[in-house]
Amino acid sequence: MKILIVGNGGREHAIAWKLSHSSQVQQIFCTPGNGGTATQAKCQNIVIPVTDFPALRQLIADENISLVVVGPEVPLALGITDYLQKSHLKIFGPTKAGAILEASKSWAKQFMAEANIPTAKSATFTRAEAAKEYITEIPIVIKADGLAAGKGVTVATTIEMAHNAIDRIFQGEFDKKNQSVVIEEFLTGQEISVLALTDGLTIRPLLPAQDHKAVGEGDTGPNTGGMGAYAPTPIVTPELMTHIQQQVLEPTLTNLQKRGIDYRGVIYAGLIISPTGEAKVLEFNCRFGDPETQPILSLLETPLEELLLACCEQRLGQLPPINWKSGVAVCVVLASGGYPGTYQKGKIICGVEKAEATGVKIFHAGTKFQAQNLITEGGRVLGVTAVGANFTEAKAKAYAAVDCIQFERMYYRRDIGRQVFSN
Ligand code: AMP
Ligand code: GLY
What we know:
alpha+beta, single chain, manganese, PRibGlycinamide_synth_C_sf, ATP-binding, metal-binding, D-amino Acid Aminotransferase, Chain A, domain 1
């Protein structure tokens, strides 16, 4: 089998790495890929942008590719699956109609209300004045309706901050065409990520993970795509997972079916668990999470292509339970200093081989090779991912490996897991 992975993050490297282990997988193409996928066994990068659908279709035809895995949300929201489906391919990732679950927060809120899925109270506005009038108390959460690469949400602690966030949305900072705002009740609790696979008929959760969105230690500073993650998180007990399955995942699938949306891919529920154990949905994503996919796939024993193909062929319900390694996986993201604001690229990265020799896996995100050197090419650069018998062991292994790696202005959080495990 030849597979195409669309994307260039740590998530895509983790997917390529996992798929490369299977004897069923002959060759993997990554478009555009990164420095990690460039050197991964069986893997080859082809420089095609993720939104150039005609060029991707040409590559698929030329190389006789039979399975496409779409990593990021942008091509999904633009309809890559609809476009490629015309060639009767197997595509892991929802159509445009399904990707709207992530691409429009107001659509997702309406969808959750219809299906009685627990979520924060909210209201949607298309005019700044009306949105501002609605705000009477703080903290309050202001969300740009459309895709904003993780930057469209402001937890406002003053009215001024809330008004400013609304103004930025209506000035078109995130999306010039979609200038709606969702204003949401502020919730407190533990944030977790439940990624589930679906073939449109059944839905099966993967190991629950916890991401660390804020750039700073102690969960301070602006939000990023994610500064580190671990799985499984003990916040999600088996009872809580059953509850999430019944209250969130099943009703999501049922409501997609009711709306006639044939969804085959990942449904990622970002949840907040209140101190009393209540789960509410903060957001849906229509794809694998990054960095969550790095620790999750590090523990997966079932061959990944079997799961992906079963989703595409609508036979997920016929598969035996998903097998997992015991233990815990911890991923620490190494970022370029300045991220999620402005940062420099092109810094030489040293020590990756030495780090991997300690028994961890380094997934690449913003890296590339230039004149034999591995250099930085993005905000999130590497995901140092370690598996251990328990959290403490995995974390110690991950940070020992981090110590082997250097690049100018390298930045990372030292407190992955802080909310649950005392550091
Ligand atoms: P979202 O993209 O909707 O997941 O929001 C990004 C981040 O903002 C989340 O990961 C939370 O940390 C925070 N957030 C979003 N909605 C809320 C809420 N209703 N209450 C508290 N924090 C929130
Ligand atoms: N780690 C958060 C995300 O993938 O959206």
